[in-house]
Write a structure and sequence with these properties.
The protein is mostly helical. Helix content is 59%, strand content 10%. The chain has helices at 9-22, 29-35, 39-45, 54-75, 81-91, 94-103, 106-109, 114-118, 125-143, 145-155, 157-161, 172-180, 223-238, and strands at 188-196, 203-210, 213-220. It has a 3-stranded antiparallel sheet with strand order 1-2-3, covered by helices on one side.
Length: 239
């Protein structure tokens, strides 16, 4: 196993617990450690031996795009290039990747600096989506391209299946609106609940209400993102 600053025995045992959730047994545990080390942690530590996850995020993003592009090309031979592009973008969007990260409880294993941790980094969709990409990057380096592609398709299976009925091309707000509109007596609106953080890094929290009853809460770095997350939660509650 390669050594890396911060990869203590306690941290290693924690990563092994996560690996069971991932369904992956790493040969080089330092890769998973790096994938779950946020830049804020590395910057505050001021230790050149601590590597953050931005480079693995870059690699994981490329793996995700190639895996989903190949799947769409092979499984939808009649789909035009423009629609494949839109479908891929919907599959690997921040909302989807953050959802998959939450399913794996990646936020629990992320290392943060004190500032980022205090402002809700563990729950921030953008950070969770980046972490998911970083983990994919670590799997690619540790297990190889074939295993990494298979892992991506397994994790995104539900989203890939949604391509067949066209649902993947719709956003969560649109999908929720369609559900609500089936009932003539129901109305929907979004309400800003709170905002926090400095002007350059605001975090917004929105509630979505159906007939004035809160059915979903979402956070995001933009109001649009927060509304999308609120709508997503509302849809999941209705399943």
């Amino acid at each position: 196993m390669n050594t890396q600053a911060g990869l203590t025995e306690r941290r290693l045992q924690s990563l092994k617990t996560l690996a069971k959730r991932l369904g992956v047994s790493f040969k080089d545990w330092s890769l998973l450690h790096q994938a779950l080390t946020h830049t804020s942690y590395a910057n505050e530590a001021k230790n050149p031996g601590i590597l953050h996850n931005e480079r693995l995020e870059f690699l994981g993003d490329a793996v995700l795009e190639l895996a989903t592009s190949t799947y769409l090309y092979k499984n939808f031979p009649e789909m035009p290039e423009g629609e494949m592009t839109k479908s891929r973008a919907a599959i690997v969007c921040e909302v989807t990747l953050a959802k998959r990260a939450r399913e794996l409880d990646l936020g629990k294993y992320l290392l943060f600096g004190k500032g980022e941790l205090a402002t809700g980094g563990r729950e921030r969709a953008s950070i969770l989506a980046d972490a998911f990409e970083s983990v994919i990057g670590s799997i690619y380096l540790d297990q190889g391209s074939e295993a990494a592609f298979a892992y991506v398709l397994e994790r995104l299976q539900d989203d890939l299946c949604n391509v067949r009925d066209g649902q993947i091309l719709k956003d969560y707000k649109t999908l929720l609106q369609e559900v609500v509109q089936k009932h003539a007596d129901q109305t929907i609106h979004y309400e800003l609940v709170a905002e926090s953080g400095p002007d350059h890094s605001k975090v917004f929290e929105f509630a979505v209400k159906v007939n004035d009853v809160v059915c979903g809460i979402g956070q995001g770095r933009s109001k649009k993102e927060a509304e999308q997350h609120a709508a997503q939660q509302a849809l999941e509650k209705r399943k």
